[in-house]
Amino acid sequence: MENKRTCLYDKHVALGALISPFGGFDMPIQYTNIVEEHNAVRQACGIFDVSHMGEVLVTGPESEKFVNYIFTNDITDAPYGKIYYGMMLHPTGGVVDDLLVYKMGEKRFFLVINAGNIDKDVAWIMEHAKNFDVTVEHQSAYYGQVAIQGPRSEEVVENVLGIPCSELAFYTCKEVEYNGETLIISRTGYTGEDGFEIYGSHAYTNEAWDKVVASGKALPCGLGCRDTLRFEVGLPLYGDELTDEITPLEAGLGIFVKLEKENFIGKEAIAAQKAEGLKRKIVGIELKDKAIPRHGYDVEVDGKVIGQVTTGYNSISTGKSVCMALIDAEYGKLGTEVDVRIRKKVFPGVVIKKRFYEKNYKK
Amino acid sequence: MSKIVEGLFYAESHEYVKIEGEFGYVGITDYAQHELGNVVYVDMPDVDDEVEAGEDFGAVESVKAASDLISPVSGTVVEVNEALNDSPELVNADPYANWIIKVQLSDASEAQKLMDAAAYKAFIGE
Question: Would you say residue B119 lies in a domain?
Fold first, then answer.
């Protein structure tokens, strides 16, 4: 099947980006150099095309009740503009997808889902919506999205795009009228830095991209560094740390699952897993050497396989080779010595916190 | 435009070997380092390890990917480029000066099966 393209695809090609498939789209992985792009976001500002992300609008009398039923976080009586991170779960507790829920207004919720899961998620949402008085609109084809990330992103959004955003708190959003269309801007991101995400028409997305790139105030950044950035601050990627078979508790994301909520899909499985205790969990591992533990490599103790690496890099910000890995919980204590098998050799490492670099959010 | 050095022998997997008497210096080409991007780790064999033409003897790792190193020649590793342990980025800076292993060749005629500079240039389409 042919991959989809975002509304900015031609700009990526013109900039000479290395293009690779991701989540069913041909996406820019890097423009010039992943290290420079990564550092631009940590130190100044970068702009990403994240138009591949999916959007679903849920409205109607029972919209709050419905979203609470399919979502692990609790959106009850949320103030307008508040954003929640959480997951949709299978009844088994495995993750259908992780997503953001934006409370846009009275009985109006905007769901942002992963590109690679759009078809699965929309079918899932539609199926469960049948039992509620709600309207579900799949809007992925309409919206383009740019993420402007880094300590200087507020300055770029205000001065280059002319959108006032300094008053936006972390994980909040607002709607902005611009040239006859309604944009959504939120103080969110996937880099561990301060930043904004702006949803608009394809025309606006092109305009915003062009203005920001032409200003020279933000470096075009590909999905390559988006992954190294999110990884360093311990954020999960669906497909690596979260899958249909991995639960939020195993991924260390229990705080986003509100078991005190009345009812939601997967609640019983998660409550049972919590009561029984975890058999496996995602931990951080730091290697002594610079060899890089990558997705799927075995983690071993005394020659016995105890799990697999989910994501690993030589961290650009710290220079250390680190990974997240899903391993037997009995080896998950901080300080436990474990080995990672990289090709034919075994490299010694130690279990550490899976935040390899401190987040720098503006709260 | 990738740098290609006359007098070296090149493999389709983008390693080169520079023959000096009974020894061969093996590294990756400029084209390869450019395709890989920032090299952050070079996984090298130990001295005295045997390498065989067409078999992997280590890997070069960039941020995003690990790429196996395939030996273009057979023989015994007599030296590894220790400088790459601390400064793997030297492979990006000058891949021809920064060879990865020095091999005592078991069969010097093997190099004749590889591409010369002109053939490699055509191979990578430049």
Answer: no
Q: Domain ranges in chain A? A: 9-51+141-232, 55-133, 279-352
The CATH H-level (homologous superfamily) assignment of domain A279-352 is: Aminomethyltransferase beta-barrel domains (2.40.30.110)
Instruction: Look at residues A172, A192, A193, A195 and name the one whose alpha carbon lies nearest to residue A184.
Output: A172
A261-296 burial code (b ≥16 CB/10 A, e <16) = beebbbbebbeebeeeebebbbbbbbbeebbbbbee
Q: For A145-184, give one letter per residue: b (16+ CB within 10 A) or e.
A: bbbbbbbbbbbbbeebbebebeebeebbbbbbebeeeebb
CATH number at residue B64: 2.40.50.100
Residue A184 CA to residue A202 CA, distance in Å, equals 13
Q: In what order do the strands lie in the sheet with B66-70?
A: B39-43, B56-62, B66-70
Choose which CATH entry (3.30.1360.120, 3.10.310.10, 3.30.310.50, 3.40.50.300) describes domain A9-51+141-232.
3.30.1360.120
Yes or no: say if B100 and B58 are a contact pair by the CB < 8 Å rule.
Answer: yes
> Which pLDDT score is estimated for A145?
98
Could you write out the DSSP letters of every residue in A30-50? ESS-HHHHHHHHHHS-EEEE-
Contacts of residue A323 in chain B, CB cutoff 8 Å?
none
ipTM of the complex: 0.81
Residue B70 has what pLDDT? Answer: 97
The C-alpha of A348 sits at a distance from chain B's nearest C-alpha, in angstroms, of 15
Longest dimension (CA), chain B: 37
B37–A contact, CB cutoff 8 A: yes
**Residue of A33, A290, A342 with shortest CB distance to B37:** A33
A55-133 is a CATH 3.90.1150.10 domain: no
Q: Does B63 touch chain A (CB under 8 A)?
A: yes
What pLDDT score does A362 carry?
A: 84
Ranges of residues in chain A whose predicted pLDDT is under 50? none
